[in-house]
Write a structure and sequence with these properties.
heterodimer; A: 156 residues; mainly beta; eight-stranded antiparallel β-sheet; two-stranded antiparallel ribbon; 2 helices; 10 strands; 35% strand; globular; disordered C terminus; B: 82 residues; alpha+beta; elongated
């Protein structure tokens, strides 16, 4: 399929690489289709490009590479939405902002992208962990990351 | 907007499967208990709004990073892991 993008022009991607976000991403409900391709040649970073909105694209990276003890609780709602039978099929990624100085890179720890590799369904979760922020400086934070887990319907 | 007054331990029903209880009231903080089907997401609005704003800001500001920045970031991550 052909995908119009503002950053890369019109790109051709194999149909089977399409990932469906049934609820879009937060703030962009209508962005249901995404494709993933490499950002750089390290294999660590990927572009998550919307097929519906040309300018909508995020750099993502698997969360464990950024915050080793980062955890999300994938609840029943998420399992249903992603048609996730086996948690091992879930890829948890963080949206990064990579400025010119890579030391200043931030990651959005409150709104991770979770995708099911088997069904190619994805979603953006909302975590409640007060230790996390949307602009976590991955190299400058002196705060200890806790093992506390975010969950959708917890008490505090 | 419908506005109801509730005392501690009183509950509001929304439809037949969402229950909102006033658990505690201390000063200007109200602790609210929510019983809802698992298929319904419950979020603090400010977190939802923060993520929404961050998504919009990120996609506007993120240009294609230079190769050096990506390479530098990969190196920094490797160092961090050690």
């Amino acid at each position: 399929m052909k995908v119009k993008t503002t950053r890369f022009g019109e790109i051709e991607v194999p149909d089977e690489t399409l990932i469906t976000f049934p609820e879009g991403v937060i703030g962009f409900k209508e962005a249901r289709g995404f494709v993933i391709f490499d950002c750089g040649d390290q294999g660590l970073f990927k572009w998550l490009q919307s097929t519906d909105i040309p300018e909508l694209a995020f750099v993502i990276c698997e969360s464990h590479l950024i915050v080793p003890n980062y955890q999300v609780i994938i609840g029943q709602k998420e399992r249903d939405l992603l048609q996730l039978d086996n948690v091992e099929d879930a890829a948890v990624c963080l949206i990064l902002v990579i400025p010119e100085d890579p030391q200043e890179t931030t990651g959005n720890l409150l709104g991770p992208i979770v995708m099911n590799a088997k069904t190619r369904l994805g979603m953006q979760m909302v975590l409640v962990n007060p230790q996390y922020s949307t602009r976590y400086k991955i190299f400058k934070s002196t705060e200890e990351e806790s093992n506390e887990e975010g969950e959708n319907a917890g008490t505090e | 907007m419908l506005v109801l007054s509730r005392k501690r331990d009183e509950t509001i029903m929304i439809g037949d499967n969402i229950e909102i209880s006033i658990v505690d009231i201390k000063g200007d903080t109200v602790r609210v208990g929510i019983n809802a089907p698992k298929s319904i997401s419950v979020h603090r609005k400010e977190i939802f709004e923060a993520i929404k704003e961050e998504n919009i800001a990120t996609t506007k500001s993120q240009s294609v990073p230079k190769m050096e920045a990506i390479g530098g970031l990969a190196d920094l991550l490797k160092k961090k892991k050690k």
